[in-house]
Amino acid sequence: MSAVPITKVRTIVDKIEDGGAGIKVFSLVDPDHWELPPFKPGAHIDLHLPGGLVRTYSLCNDPADDKRYVVAVKREVEGRGGSIVLHDEVKVGDTIGVMLPRGGLDLSTEVTRFTFVGGGIGVTPFLSAAAWLKRMGRSKFTLHMIARGEPPLADLLAPLRKSGHVVIHDTSSGQRPDIAALVGRPLSDVALACCGPDSMIDDFEQASRDWPADRVHIERFVPPPLPVDPDAKPYVLALAKSKREIVVAAGQTMLSALTDIGIDVPASCCGGICGSCKVDWLEGQPVHRDRVLSPAERERSLLVCVAGSAKDRLVLDL
Predict the structure, then answer these.
(1) What is the tens place of the pLDDT at every residue in 54-79?
(2) What is the 3-state secondary structure (H, E, C) of the chain?
(3) Which CATH number fits the domain that encloses residue 212?
(4) Number of structural domains found in the chain
(5) Which of 39, 59, 112, 251 has CB 3.0 to 4.6 Å from 189, enough for a Cys bridge?
(6) 2Fe-2S ferredoxin-type domain spans which residues (predicted)?
């Protein structure tokens, strides 16, 4: 009998610190203060919160800081509730389940320079990446921090400001900087990354359209709406491990169909931008609608919250 892989760890809220206007910084540690599972720079974790909520956040700390996970959370009154729970209910000493870290930024040695563009709280994954790059002696990077007034997370930004790696763009005293000017023209040794509000992401996507896809990394706060497919048809979803088959109705998501029969798949954004519901597929022809998986990952995986099937039958490794 094969062992069941560990996918979630138990953590304790060790510290809650002020990160600026409407922002709290949470440090999560192992109950016995052992090392936590490793992560790549700018990786994400899913927090299992009170009330059954699961929410995804970027890690802010250096992967070498391996006895804690640090996330910064902005209280969003118009959000989906996760930030409200963290700000208003979670206290020091509380237990939070955390899914194993996933994703992160590709800081390959083939790239010698990096340009990061962070809008407000969207700076979080780049704080982790910048700390890792500095520790590795790879100092050729610039973080453009776009914020209205005093930038958030001043304590985490301070070392980067001191070393001259951060350019602060204060939009309270002028317009947002020209994203195309920050991006510049495609260069073989440069990689780009951006995280922020939709309007900024749209400008960044336009500015980087001529760059190689593997040199551009984008993270969104909110998933874009899925287009309605007028030609959608039902298909059979076969589950190889559990030896079950279900019919996914036209317009229904795989996630919904799986949930209906009691198959528990971790999910957070439900819009193809966080990657928490990644599942391997074995046979068929998936239709990928996510904004997370690389072409290589799509050869074996899909996100059940948004993926579809181009054929009458699709087999998942579930």
Answers:
(1) 899 999 999 999 999 999 999 998 87
(2) CCCCCCCEEEEEEEEEEECCCCEEEEEEECCCCCCCCCCCCCCEEEEECHHHCEEEEECCCCCCCCCCEEEEEECCCCCCCHHHHHHHCCCCCCEEEEECCECCCCCCCCCCEEEEEEEHHHHHHHHHHHHHHHHCCCCCEEEEEEECCCCCCHHHHHHHHHCCCEEEEEHHHCCCCCHHHHHCCCCCCEEEEEEECHHHHHHHHHHCCCCCHHHEEEEECCCCCCCCCCCCCCEEEEECCCCEEEEECCCCCHHHHHHHCCCCCCCCCCCCCCCCCEEEEEECCEECCCCCCCHHHHCCEEECCCCEECCCEEEECC
(3) 3.40.50.80
(4) 3
(5) 112
(6) 235-318
